[in-house]
Amino acid sequence: MMEPLEVTIYFKTPIALGFPWLYLDSLLANLKVIEEQGERYFTSPKVAPLETPDIPVKKWRDVYVSSVSIFEPSDVGFQVFQYFKKGDYPFPQGKIRKGSGFFKDFYLRVGYLPVRSIKFYCSCEKDEVERLLKKAPAIGKERNIGFGFVKEVEVKEIEQEWGLVKDGLAMRPIPVTYLKGYEDTAYLAYKPPYWMKENVTLCAVPFTRVGLSTSG
Fold it and tell me: In sequence order, what DSSP letters do the residues of 105-137 get, joined into one string?
């Protein structure tokens, strides 16, 4: 049964990001694909699925009722972690260049947030969301060097549905064609897969004022 939920993910380590937000619907879809494909997901050539697998999240029109991530504490600044990566390939005999080319050593920069937890609001099947999220040992980018390790996942029922709008604010990208009023807009993907240009349209920006349209 779909019910309004508050999902909180607590972290052992800071989370690295490549975008301002994380999407719960996308995270659940990725976990479902890994579950369905098993080891093939990690060993076969990567072919990104064009269709989102069936996930336990309610839809309003074609938008998942699932907020973007809310970082806690909310006032932490974006940090940059720099590290030096050395070529870890077996070197051939003879001279090689390590200042350029295939065996080049280089600095990497990772953007991260030193947050304790992230929160999502959604309307979902509680047991299935808990089951899938327990399969995620880490979340975000650069997990291979220790970012985003999950400490605990807490899923609890709430009284109101806040996956789309809370206190008059958009909680995720919502196409302006689905709104009767909005404060700020940007071209954003509004449904998974979020990398597909076909899913990009003019949307209300998360955490800005909106009014949902009741027509159509």
Answer: -EEEEEEEE--SEEEEEEEEEHHHHHHHHTT-S
